[in-house]
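Thread: Newbie trying to understand structure tokens

Hi all, I'm a second-year student working on a class project, and my supervisor (Dr. K.) asked me to get a predicted structure for one chain before our next meeting. I've only ever worked with sequences, so writing a 3D structure as a token string is new to me. If someone could post the tokens and maybe explain what I'm looking at, I'd be very grateful. Here's the chain:
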Amino acid sequence: MIRLENIEKVYRTDTVETLAVNGISLDIARGEFLSIMGPSGCGKSTLLNIIGLLDSPSKGVVNIDDKDISGFSDQQLAGFRNHTLGFIFQSYHLINDLQVLDNVELPLLYRQASAKERRELAQEALGKVGLHNRMKHFPSQLSGGQRQRVAIARAIVGKPKIILADEPTGNLDSAMGNGIMDILIHLNKNDGTTIVMVTHDEQMAHKTHRLVRLFDGSQVL
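---
Reply by user tm_fold:
Sure, no problem. This is what the structure looks like when written as tokens:
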């Protein structure tokens, strides 16, 4: 589902050159749940952003769903992201002035979907994360765990083949974090969604199919 070949990412300023990702080659199977671990600054989020097509590698090949995206235009990348990828962030990134249902609908605004279809898909996604009774609430009226579930609903509303999760349990206590992991495991097992998760939590990482460790931008396991 995801193939990375000799990926390198270098950030340059006038005086400093930083090698954030160094020669990573990785195959992630369709339907796999993979976790990525490593100390802060080791390149985890950079690698996730490259997989998510939010950043481009300085060198190497990114192949997703049997497509080499190196020749894609910005418009093609945006369309591919919207239909193929779902993103979950540690900080939720919900819009406080919008109700839960409207937050979940947002990714569908970039598709040619009717208002009725958007609403039905958003309601379905909220049902999957157990928040059907919170549709008319605003994010400020929810707990941290509920807000993360809204973020998951937003990530899955377009039925993506791949979910990329950056520290999805990082801001939550253990009970809420386990609840979020249960949802991700269910999506992986029942819907066949491929999931790549960055985490600092060994307990959460060992609930996934496979663990990859990074250190100083290189894969060490």
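A couple of things are worth pointing out once you decode it. The longest strand covers residues 17-28. Residues 174-191 form the longest helix (18 residues). Feel free to ask follow-ups in this thread.
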